[in-house]
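Quick one, T. Sequence first:
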Amino acid sequence: MNCRSEVLEVTVEARQVDEAMLALLHTILLHRSTGKFHYKKEGTYSIGTVGTQDIDCDFLDFTFVRVSSDELDRVIRKAVCEFKDALGCSGGDGMGQISLEFYQKKKSRWPFSDECIPWEVWSIKVNVVNLANEQERQICREKVGEKLGEKVINVVEVINRHDYLPKMPTQSEVDNVFDTSLKDVQPYLYKITYQITDSLGTSVSTTMRRLIKDTLAL
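Structure tokens:
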């Protein structure tokens, strides 16, 4: 099975990191989650509904939609918070990547552990820049909001392609495909990882500052 890989890239202020990451990760998980399965007998089941919620950002001109699950939101926020803290510890302008990997389990014979086989990976490259004043921050707030809107559309277009998805499992195999630990939603099995680069390439920070200066000149 070939693992599908998608890469997104955003440039933000430090205070925008968590909202930008939450917007993108929640958008992906919104389309990679189902309602809870309710089995009547093996091979027969119904699927519960998935509620949604609009989230307004504080430091971005942007509103995103997420699954209405506080449990899932806490898991995502914890991972994003750890990523943001690691970025902050890198000092000054920084660069990092947070990845959302979907996988399915393949049972192995005892004494070996189950094999986790990835089928889709989303990598979000994050460039953090420091801005000089409040006017630049306001422009960045608007520009990053616009860019996030484009990224969300891109995510939806990719997900709407008729590419591989794990087949619907039987009741005995549902834990090999879905995370059944949450009480109100059932995302495909996933894990979130991140890595930090010590310094930001000058081309990225220069591009953002040039964009802001060009806007100021209008």
